[in-house]
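tool=predict chain=A
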Amino acid sequence: MSRLKPFKDVSEHEILGLFAYNGSTASAGTFVKVAGATKGVALNDNLALDANAGGAFTNAVSPHFNLPARVTTVGTGERAIGMLLYDVALTDENGEQYKFHPDKAAADNIVLTGQAAPIAKRGIFAVKINGDPVIGSPVYTDANGYATPTGEGNGKDVVGIFLGPGDSDGYALCQINTPNFADRNLGA
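tool=predict ok
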């Protein structure tokens, strides 16, 4: 599921931890944007609780905290705020819910839907790409939020540069730098 190889060079200061993914599943290496004008980070937001953690039992409380600020996958020509560093999922390969197995979720580099999904704004990563890159050429995002060497050229979907060619598995070394504030027009 992950679209990232373990190699990465990123500072902890370049990681956003303020947003949850607005959907049930997403792959690490997917570029994301803020999910609508009302889903950003409001300074007066409170954490929301899920109704329960799998079952309603008398005299038992097992809340699951959710972040109100959400991100969603970027489309072609949209401005990304960063790239997911972990997969987002509800269940594992056997259909077991990760919320009952937090140790397995941590071992699999999974964040649960609704929980903070680390988003890298800047760094060097080995990213799965769609296409054949040229060293030094721009990294664009496609309609699924994945890295690609082809784009619209309008600047909004440029998220970095390729530092190397693609390998036999379809991964390439990329320097990611989002958001691109070059034109100061931050609208999508």
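Helices lie at 102-107. The radius of gyration is 17 Å.
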